[in-house]
Write a structure and sequence with these properties.
This protein has 129 residues and is α+β, with helices and mostly antiparallel strands. Helices cover 50% and strands 26% of the residues. It is built from 2 helices and 4 strands. The chain has helices at 3-9, 13-69, and strands at 77-83, 86-94, 99-107, 119-127. Strands 1-2-3-4 form a 4-stranded antiparallel sheet, covered by helices on one side. The longest helix is centred in the N-terminal third of the chain and has 57 residues, at 13-69. The chain is rod-shaped and about 100 Å long.
Amino acid sequence: MNHSDFRKDERGFALVSAIFILVVLSLLGAAMVKIAGVQGRTASGALQAAKAYHAARSGIEWGAERARNSAWCAAATSDNFVLEGFTVTVTCSPTAHSVYVINSEADLPGNYGTPDYIKRSLQAKVYGL
C-alpha cells in the first residue's frame, strides 16, 4: 500500500463525520426545546396550584368569619363565590359544642384529567363564640 492508496480510503470520512455531528446536535437541540417546554408548563402549573391553595384558604377564612359572626352555619350550608377565576365552594357543618367544620374547595373551570385542571381542598374546625 503506498501513500496515495491510503488517502483514497479516507475520502468522504469528513462528510460522514459532519453529518453525524449535525444529527447529534439536532437531537440535542430538539431535546432542549422539549425540556424547556415541560419546565414552562410545570412552573405555570405550580403557580396555578399556589393560587388555588390561597383561594381555598380565603374560603376557609370567609366561612370561619361567617360561622362566628352570623347564623350562616346554624345548619349545614354551602355557598360559593368566584375569586381570581377560581370557583370557591365553602361548606359548613355544625357539630356539638359550637364547633364548625368548614370545607373549602377552589378549582379552575375545566375537565378533570386535563393538564390545566387545578383543584385544592382545605378543611378547618372553628370554635364559635
